[in-house]
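pasting input
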Amino acid sequence: MLEIRKKWKKRRGAWAAAVICLFPAALICAPLLMIPGGALMDGAEINRILAPVLGEGKGFAVWHLIPLYPTIGHFYRLLIESPAFYQLFWNTVGMTAAILFGQLAVGLPSAWAFAAFQFRGRDFLFGLYVVLMLLPFQVMLLPQYIILQKLELYNHPAAVILPAIFSTFPVFIMYRGFTQIDAEIMEAARLDGAGELQIFLQIGLTLGKMGIQSAVVLSFLENWNLVEQPMAFLEEQAKWPLSLYLPQIDIGQAGFAFAVSVVVLIPALFVFALGQDALEEGIACIGVKQ
Amino acid sequence: MDSKKKLWRGFAAFMSAMLIMTYVSRMVYVSRMPQIRWMNPIASSIQKKLQVDGTVEAVNSQAVTGLDGLLVKKVCVASGDRMEPETVLYEVDVEDLMTQLSRLEAEEQVWQGQVQAQRREAQEEIVRAQEDYDISVAELDRKIAEETALLEDMMEDLDTHLFRIPKEDASDEIWIAWADERLRLDREIEAKKRAIEDTNFQKEKILKQADRSIEDAKQAQSEVTGAYAPSFSAIGQVQAREDKIEAWKQLAEDEGKVRAGQEGTVLEVMLQSGMRMGSEAVVRYADDESGLMFSTVITQEQKSMLHTGDSVRLRFPGSSEEVAETVDFIMQENGGYTVKIYLEPGVARGRTEGVMEAASTSEIYDFVVPVKALHNEGGNCVYVLEERNGILGTELSIRSLTVRLLDQNEDYAAIADDLLSGDMKIVTESDRELENGAAVKEWLD
């Protein structure tokens, strides 16, 4: 009995914290819960529910998690009758893949260089990377626009891909991953006669894998949902990513918009699930003080 | 690790499904897309061809009236037939004809009997009136003679009295008595004269009445005998009956065959076997002396293509005859326009129907498109084919362009608008209904 009381006293705080966090957690998750229900909801039902929100009714909008008149009509329309959706889907896939490959090609050596080598100006350069990482997109918009115009890349997918490839955030994440590698291991490899490229490929990529994966997952999620860059630099709709498809749908087609949201979420969920472990470890690395 | 593999497989399956559905949705999208054909508008004139059916009519048509009350046994001619003198037009039922003839003759006999009786009565009436006249004249003459004799006596009495005038020295009483007597005699004479005048006046009055009675009697007699005509209708009826009897007798002798009186072309036959005729026309025909004319009715729209004096071609179904004629006049009536064309002698003999063909060429218009390209969306419009950049890339789409319709025929329309140009691609044909802004694909022949 005494044991039970001691255990309860120990866990009491944890339970209290859980209960306190439950409410904000529910609030945060609520929009996510609306998506599957809304995607299966009849258009008339959605319009009736959203009438107070749209200023066409009185009182509050009361959402039904389970639709009264479930339908797959929105999915049918999206998947069968909306070729534009697929056009933008594959645009997004292409853009995101190009950005990720580019970031790995450019960011990996950069991050390794910062982590593995001591050279003059290293701290200044890394500080510059951090500053660039902190700059919001709006600050960079005009310079980027001018440069892209000069390079005649405006209204070209490269206008979105190239600036993203040279993003400093993945470098920072991967750098933090590489810094977790014990310096003695690399020293031992050098003593054994391993070259720098061999050390990078065999030790750096192997031991810094979690940081790399973490950077890839975070970069994927960021670039899968790019809105401002394509909106600013891509004029032709045919080159837009999927993130600009949803704003094209008016409020009268809310059910269709929910269906789009569901399908758009699927790749992101897959990537998140595949890289969840690495993401947690990579984020943990960021917090470790050198 | 297995779960990671499953996730990778799931992700691959999802992407594969998305790839397949990309093609499927494209195919569905394209299958619902209207297929169109297009052309650039051309500068051209509009050829208008007018073709209308009409009838061949006689300028002055003649009519054969029916034999009132007789039964048609057989109709021997039809519209368009030529007829010569003595051509049998139709036959009447002879048995019925004989029955009708007997009835008519019986009516005639009854009527003749009635006339004889009425004549006798009228003659007697005249005699009686004359006797009354004579008696009245004799009576009044006798009365006047008596009154005149009395007047003469009174005149003698007055002369005698004047002769017996008193002497100058006679007394006043004598003179007064003499004067009174004279005054009495004068008054009586005057009264008698007035009586004679009254009798004369009465005589004249009675004689006039007697004369009128005689005249009435004579008039009644005349009506019966037909000496003069106070009632033409009565005489006409008698004459008509007599003529009818005569004609029917001749018809009976010719076995009920009704023959044409002159040569011509039968225009219309309003007879059927077994029908009993009235007195209206039963056959209408055009004699060869009066010409034929082509008549038709055109609409307001067609009127713009045809004017008086225009040359037209006429064809007559069932024959190879085709002639060029001139429109003689166009007259507006009954919401349309009646066109009359007088035909040359010998043209369309034996024809009752024809087809008129006329052609006209307009001025040259800048933009002419097929009529099929013209649509009506609250006004005339055409669909212009354009390239449009959308989510699916560069697509063909159509845009509605409102135009003014200047002229048209069955195949082409002349249009105008400030925005029109010769290099515009005008949609001329589609396999389904078009909407402004719709994506389309070109027809694959």
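fyi The first helix of chain B runs from residue 2 to 31.
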